[in-house]
């Protein structure tokens, strides 16, 4: 008997198309797995009926001889940042608890059009603000991984921690994520799965709850590079409803996959060898170079001199945009409304936001409002935008020397939940390797590489030229084939 929950996107799609099994059988298996994994707290809302209805449609279409879509028969998890028609969409916040959109996000609609079904809405850091999935109003997400010999609950990364936990634990074959400063790549690295942030504008932001509009980008999270390529093809595409959407055809990334890197140059940025990076991470980076060399690539040293300024610039730009975007949550039009006895309008605003936003969201709103204020706009926000331009220029100059960049995804492996809550700066440093590509709007991917001595996954990051997701996916495939990462978490939930 086929163990459906061990299958990925490609195997499910191809098996359903061939008639080896039905889409309903797959959906029923994953629905049962989701129900059995409540301890992970990966889902805020489950939608088993949605998964079954989509599966039944695929089975009927196949029986009628109709052409099936790229994701036909694949049930997925949907990060609770994407608006889903008639299904609660909260961004893991109290202020949006109970909100059921009357519309569907473009990305989720593209996936349903491609034949996917929805297992439920996945937990995340509130409004995508966090690196550990501990800021959700609906509770922490537990990583399915544990250190060898320990029962300590580990972080699945953030903000897409529900997505990474669901895919790594085999309760979803794939999931959507969003990446503002590493929120697809970092959780993918922490949980031993693949995740790609495409070029800014590849996937529509319409219907995605906004954090930082010039940085937010949706992408797929799955267990293999091939599965990410398939899902990204289904998600991407021009959307006239999104002014930042790229008016470009979606390439055939799956068909273009090749692990042969002959003639390609892989850049190694010297500035990414930072103090405080875990030795196991550095060792896996060296191993990654050897794998890519074995695939035919030439390894070259490059410089990205403004790397050290990227993280501080990001934590000015992103909170500034967040403070503007989150101003719409005021208790007037939708979501939570707190109206104390005898309160005026300003009192209602204050009470609603005080009750509706978590501490990390409030922290970033305060930072953002401060750097946008009249006396500090030029000193902070404008300076950060200048740094952003310099970071992007570093990458532009690097492309004269290489085709793709190899770097660590994170400076450390996963850490125990509650271990960094009192130290937000150290938490922010978790994004130090991921943020530069986000500031420059470049495609970047994390691929699982090795395990630490404690048995925790480590990821390697690949960054590509604008619009060159194919180059990133191909280099990722070369690493995947040589790393042969087959480790999976032992079930404790």
Can you offer a commentary on this structure?
The protein has helices at residues 9-18, 23-36, 48-63, 106-113, 161-168, 185-191, 225-235, 279-294, 307-325, 345-356, 359-371, 377-398, 424-428, 435-440, 469-483, and strands at residues 43-46, 75-79, 117-122, 174-179, 194-197, 217-222, 265-269, 298-302, 404-408, 444-451, 457-464. It contains 15 helices and 11 strands. Helix content is 37%, strand content 13%. The model has no long low-confidence stretch (mean pLDDT 96). The relative contact order is 0.14. The chain has 493 residues and is of the alpha/beta class. It has a domain at 4-258 and 445-483: Alpha-Beta Complex (Amidase signature (AS) enzymes), CATH 3.90.1300.10. Helix 4 (106-113) links the parallel strand 2 (75-79) and strand 3 (117-122). The protein is globular. Helix 5 (161-168) packs parallel to helix 6 (185-191), helix 7 (225-235) runs antiparallel to helix 15 and helix 9 crosses helix 12. The strands form 2 sheets. An 8-stranded mixed beta sheet has the order 4-6-5-10-11-9-7-8, with helices on both faces. Strands 1-3-2 form a 3-stranded mixed beta sheet, sandwiched between helices.
Helix and strand layout, with pairings?
Blueprint: H1 9-18, H2 23-36, E1 43-46, H3 48-63, E2 75-79, H4 106-113, E3 117-122, H5 161-168, E4 174-179, H6 185-191, E5 194-197, E6 217-222, H7 225-235, E7 265-269, H8 279-294, E8 298-302, H9 307-325, H10 345-356, H11 359-371, H12 377-398, E9 404-408, H13 424-428, H14 435-440, E10 444-451, E11 457-464, H15 469-483
Parallel strand pairs: 2-3, 7-8, 7-9
Antiparallel strand pairs: 1-3, 4-6, 5-6, 5-10, 9-11, 10-11
Helix pairs in contact: 2-3, 5-6, 7-15, 9-11, 9-12
């Amino acid at each position: 008997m086929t163990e459906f929950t061990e299958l990925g996107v490609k195997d499910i799609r191809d098996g359903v198309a061939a008639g080896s099994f039905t889409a309903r059988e797959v959906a029923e298996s994953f629905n049962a797995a989701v129900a059995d994994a409540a301890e992970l707290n990966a889902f805020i809302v489950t939608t088993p009926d949605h998964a079954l209805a989509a599966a039944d449609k695929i089975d009927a279409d196949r029986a009628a001889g109709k052409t099936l879509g790229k994701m036909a028969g694949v049930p997925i998890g949907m990060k609770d940042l994407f608006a889903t028609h008639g299904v609660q969409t909260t961004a893991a916040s109290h202020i949006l608890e109970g909100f059921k959109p009357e519309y569907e996000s473009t990305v989720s609609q593209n996936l349903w059009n491609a034949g996917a079904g929805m297992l439920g809405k996945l937990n995340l850091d509130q409004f995508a603000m966090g690196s550990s999935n501990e800021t959700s109003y609906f509770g922490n997400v537990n990583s399915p991984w544990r250190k060898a010999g320990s029962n300590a609950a580990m972080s699945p990364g953030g903000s897409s921690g529900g997505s990474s936990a669901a895919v790594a634990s085999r309760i979803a074959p794939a999931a959507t994520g969003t990446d503002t400063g590493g929120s697809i790549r970092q959780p993918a690295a922490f949980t031993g799965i693949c995740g790609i942030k495409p070029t800014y504008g590849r996937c529509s932001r319409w219907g995605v709850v906004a954090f930082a509009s010039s940085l937010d980008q949706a992408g797929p999270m799955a267990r293999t590079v091939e599965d990410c390529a398939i899902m990204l093809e289904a998600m991407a595409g021009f959307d006239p409803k999104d002014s930042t959407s790229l008016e470009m055809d979606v390439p055939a990334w799956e068909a273009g996959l090749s692990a042969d890197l002959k003639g390609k140059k892989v850049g190694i940025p010297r500035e990414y060898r930072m103090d405080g990076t875990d030795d196991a991470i550095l060792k896996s980076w060296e191993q990654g170079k050897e794998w890519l060399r074995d695939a035919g690539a030439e390894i070259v040293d490059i410089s990205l001199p403004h790397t050290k300024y990227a993280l501080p610039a990001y934590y000015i730009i992103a909170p500034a945009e967040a403070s503007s975007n989150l101003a719409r949550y005021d208790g007037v039009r939708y979501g939570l409304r707190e109206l104390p006895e005898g309160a005026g309008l300003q009192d209602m605003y204050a009470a609603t936001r005080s009750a509706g936003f978590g501490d990390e969201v409030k922290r970033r709103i305060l930072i953002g409002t401060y750097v946008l204020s009249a006396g500090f706009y030029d000193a902070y926000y404008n300076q950060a935008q200048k740094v952003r331009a310099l970071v992007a220029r570093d990458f532009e100059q690097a492309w004269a020397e290489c085709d793709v960049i190899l770097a660590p995804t994170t400076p450390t492996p996963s850490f125990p939940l509650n271990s960094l809550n009192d130290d937000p700066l150290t938490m922010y440093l978790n994004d130090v390797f991921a943020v530069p590509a986000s500031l420059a709007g470049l495609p970047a991917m994390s691929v699982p590489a090795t395990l630490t001595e404690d048995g925790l996954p480590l990821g390697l990051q690949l960054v590509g030229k604008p619009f060159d997701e194919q180059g990133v996916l191909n280099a990722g495939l070369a690493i995947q084939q040589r790393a042969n990462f087959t480790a999976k978490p032992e079930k404790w939930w």
